[in-house]
Design goal:
The complex is a heterodimer of chains A (94) and B (498). Chain A has 94 residues and is mainly alpha-helical. Chain A is built from three helices and two strands. Classes of the chains: A mainly alpha (94), B alpha/beta (498). Chain A: Its EC number is 6.3.5.-.
Chain lengths: 94, 498
């Protein structure tokens, strides 16, 4: 039995508006992928530390020194909308 | 169907020569960077309508870089072997003032405000940066069919895919539209298209090459690496881009050897131990691929290498670990595309949250949405331990398998992909497409260097790739082992009849 995923909840968390067709299709396809992924339950992982990346590095520190960032015009060049040197967005607070 | 022709190097047209050959001619003054760049532009114009490797290119900008290279050389200030060589970049690597689209509608109008570290280093090496190469959207795919721009075609058979996600980078080198290119590899995205297109593709050790300025897909797996015609060229290009960068906190501070000098040292195959992981030759492998790789193994044995069968018992879980971790990281990385500061913004949203939902729905293609949904799911409360945490633990077991093998052998030898390039449209089911990556994913999970090089052709004329997987930061040894095969064969000298 393919795993059922609550596609509405997940789409809500992911902030993506899905069409009814996408919901149906993704639910089915991801159910198949999850069935495959369930193989991982066969592995004995007791006592195994999780591995987040392959580097023998933990914390990487840098001196806390101010450095120039991107110039304002470079930042605004890719902004969908801006005004008076600021990125504009739809109203957030009434 | 293309027929292969074997072109002796001295007679080969400029666009199909190697960095090493061209750089020697530039040094001797037999060739100018402008002449070379014009030849590459001409070739690109001629074959691009069929190959479709590029999202965009800027001829005037390339010619200006080439002219600057010629001025440097005339003044005795040439910068090294890459000076004046046209090198293409996958369209996920930032070049200041050039488009950067990730082959996504989301970034259709984005222009890079800065250079990636690799870009900066190629500029410092005098390379002529040439073109923005097509990929599967946000590097998610194995065929370039997920590109919002176009599907790149395999230069060996235009009905077939070039592989992916760095399909444009691989096809451009195979078709002579660039002398070399850079791609990125998260689960095989350099090596798999290199195998499909009959070129050399190298994924460096995780942390060897800075990811600063690379559009992130899965940050614990992504690495930038070269596509070239020869192993020597891969060494030259790696030399230019490798090394510590404080702007990438996962960049590893290690001494970078002289890779080309390492190649020149007389290799002693009789001292090499190569491991053949038995799990990589199981069911599902194409007979012609298997036979070609067996012949390569026999070649090494005949050279005096010790061939050892090894076991990587967790291989069968690699794909599952990868699809949990890569999609989880992607769902987090791609959260930045919200229509606010840059990227696509939907019109007519009722409020700011609606703006996020609509901008992301319109900006992302189907595969990207599918992976964000899967990644969000495996990270969501109630599922995190069962999927994400468990996958991270199995990742350690996968890595331990490799390290156990390296106690016995210097490198592993495997096919790059279970089968040759498939026809455009042939793999509609996502799971079937994901299975293309089964031999390449392990090196990403364990952070190991791995290279694909041509090791034959199918009866139908499609290239077959041989993969060698090396020890952590063992690129020099890996390149030497690869070159021993290459110099005794001429697969890499064949060019597609376009």
């Amino acid at each position: 039995m393919p795993e059922e995923i609550d596609i509405d909840r997940v789409a809500q968390l992911a902030r993506i508006a899905l069409t009814p067709e996408e919901k149906e299709k993704f639910s089915r396809q991801l159910g198949d992928v999850l069935t495959h992924i369930h193989q991982l339950e066969q592995v004995d992982v007791s006592g195994v530390e999780p591995m987040s990346h392959a580097q023998p590095l933990a914390n990487v520190w840098q001196a806390d020194e101010p450095r120039p960032g991107l110039p304002l015009e470079d930042v605004l060049r890719n902004a969908p909308a801006h005004r008076s040197g600021m990125i504009s967005v739809p109203k957030i607070i009434d | 169907m293309s027929t292969a022709t074997s072109a002796p190097s001295a007679l080969a047209p400029l666009h199909s020569q190697t960095i090493a050959e061209l750089s020697a001619r530039l040094v001797r003054g037999e060739l100018s960077a402008v002449e070379l760049t014009k030849a590459v532009i001409e070739r690109t114009r001629a074959v691009e309508p069929q190959v479709k490797a590029f999202n965009s290119f800027d001829e005037a900008d390339a010619l200006a870089q080439a002219a600057a290279s010629d001025v440097r050389r005339a003044a005795g200030e040439a910068l090294g072997p890459l000076d004046g060589i046209p090198i293409g970049l996958k369209d996920v690597i930032a070049v200041r003032d050039q488009p950067l689209t990730a082959s996504s509608r989301m970034l259709a109008n984005f222009v890079s405000p800065y250079d990636a570290t690799v870009t900066e280093r190629l500029k410092n090496a005098g390379a002529v940066l040439w073109g923005r190469l097509n990929l599967d959207e946000f590097a998610m795919g194995s065929s370039t069919e997920n590109s919002a721009t176009q599907t790149t075609r395999n230069p060996w058979d235009l009905a077939c895919v070039p592989g992916g996600s760095s399909g444009g980078s691989a096809a451009a080198v195979a078709a002579g539209q660039a002398i070399a290119t850079l791609g990125s590899d998260t689960g095989g995205s350099i090596r798999q298209p290199a195998a499909f297109c009959g070129v050399v593709g190298l994924k460096p050790s995780y942390g060897l090459v800075s990811r600063y300025g690379l559009i992130a897909f899965a940050s614990s797996l992504d690495q930038i690496g070269p596509f070239t015609r020869t192993v020597e060229d891969a060494a030259l290009l790696l030399q230019a881009i490798a090394g510590h960068d404080a702007r990438d906190s996962t960049s590893f501070n290690t001494q970078i050897p002289d890779y080309r000098a390492a190649l020149a040292q007389a290799g002693k195959p009789s001292a090499w131990k190569l491991g053949v992981p038995k799990e990589y030759f199981g069911e599902g492998i194409d007979a012609e691929v298997s036979a070609a790789v067996e012949r390569a193994i026999e070649f090494y044995r005949a050279q005096g290498c010790e061939i050892v069968e090894v076991s990587l018992p967790h291989t069968r879980y690699c794909l599952d670990v990868y699809y949990v971790l890569a999609t989880a990281e992607a769902s987090s990385n791609l959260a930045r595309y919200d229509g606010i500061r840059y990227g696509h913004r939907a019109q007519g949203a009722s409020d700011i949250v609606d703006l996020y939902f609509k901008s992301r729905a319109e900006g992302f293609g189907e595969e990207v949405k599918r992976r964000i949904i899967l990644g969000t799911y495996v990270l969501s409360s109630g599922y995190y331990d069962a999927y994400y945490l468990r996958a991270q633990k199995v990742r350690r077991l996968v890595t331990q398998d490799f390290l156990n093998a390296y106690a016995k052998v210097d490198a592993l030898i495997t096919p790059t992909v279970p089968a040759p390039a498939f026809k455009v449209g042939a793999k509609a089911d996502p799971l079937a497409l994901y299975l293309c990556d089964i031999y390449t994913i392990g090196a990403n999970l364990a952070g190991l260097p791995a290279i694909s090089l041509p090791c034959g052709f199918t009866a139908g004329g499609l290239p077959i790739g041989l993969q060698l997987i090396g020890q952590p930061f063992g690129e020099a040894a890996l390149l030497r082992i690869a070159q021993a095969y290459e110099t005794a064969h001429d697969w890499h000298r064949r060019v597609p009849a376009l």
